[in-house]
Design a protein that fits this description.
The protein contains three helices and 28 strands. It has helices at residues 14-26, 346-359, 373-386; strands at residues 35-36, 41-47, 54-59, 63-68, 73-79, 86-91, 97-102, 107-111, 117-121, 129-137, 140-147, 151-156, 162-167, 173-185, 198-206, 211-216, 223-230, 237-242, 248-252, 256-261, 267-273, 278-283, 289-294, 298-303, 308-314, 320-326, 329-334, 338-343. Mean pLDDT is 85; it is low at 186-196, 363-373 and 381-387. By secondary structure, the chain is mainly beta. Helices cover 11% and strands 47% of the residues. The strands form seven sheets. It has a four-stranded antiparallel β-sheet with strand order 1-28-27-26. A four-stranded antiparallel β-sheet has the order 2-3-4-5, with no helix packed on it. Strands 6-7-8-9 form a four-stranded antiparallel β-sheet, with no helix packed on it. The radius of gyration is 21 Å and the shape is globular.
Length: 387
Amino acid sequence: MSRSTDQGHFFQTDHALAEASRKSVKAGNKNGSPIDISNKILAIIADPSEGGKAVYVADSTGIARRIVIETSGTTHYYTSLSSNPLTSLALNSSHTILFSGSWDKSIISWSTSTTTPQRRYHHGHTDFVKAVATIIIANKELLISGAADATIIIWDIATAARLHTLKGHTRGVLALAADPLAHRPFNSGGSDATESALGVCFFSAGSDREVRLWQIGSDAVHALELQPITEAHETSVNALCFDDEGDLWSASSDGTVKHLNRERAWDVEETFTHGDYVRGVALSADNKWVVSVGRDETVKVWERGIGELKHTYKGHFGEIMGVVIMKGVVVSVSVDGTVRRWSLDPGEMERDGQRGGEDVEEEKREVPLEEDEDAELEALNREMDDA
């Protein structure tokens, strides 16, 4: 039996060595025109300015970037106050401020144009911040953060003051989404409640598999949970997004994406079975395509009208952590350190299928993915604890 003399192989299991070899082989593929930033990418959002040509991504070393997809160039770097992983991203309404949640239990903001750090939102959460979002109430912009401590905090963006701490989830909060049809009568239940006042609603989801609906009063002082709207998933809900009709979509570690219909009180209208932990979901502007990504390293394109899998793109060689769609182009990010882009053109999907995904080298995994990719992300946690 041959033995490796590479010191980097000492104290590693056979599976760990085989997996490293598999990823090394797969890493050479150019599918999706990879943009390599070398660090594990944990989050992505689209930049709506300039016609949607760029994305913001956040990585495991505490750096966020603005990347122009067409040129593959990084135009801006946003450096946090620490080297802790950045887990989530959001923009204010004018796209002039970028926010990022961090494993240091805080949120940092930067000027999108100058990259100057502006404020740090802290002394609130007691565990990793996993999700961030922004809302506007009566011309006042607020920041929402969800964390592994199972709490949601509402912050005043201008002052970094903590306005509310919302509790309802029993495990970590992993996703937030502002309701695009957000304004509705607000009643705090107190004697001074006014039915005519309008509040803004948002949704949260997390490791307790619940999707919850919350409302913030128009005075930005009152807040309440309206109801847990669904337990449609069997385990953690990792991502939420809305379509143009105002319906909610959820992605879960149970391997499915679900379409929750607003008019039917958020009942499940459609289910798309990706097959492994789903980390992100996005819909095309015309609502024709649904895209799911996850731990199996694939980008799956579903035809919404008939609910069928149209195509599977392969190229990433690590868990895919997020996805956005811009002008018919799917953009995905992964812990493999790459940003990749994929076409929604039916002809291009057919050609990619005929090419066999450019012959991406694959080998059957020897252990369940849960023991594999989660360990890779958990290593980031240990690194932070050891720092």
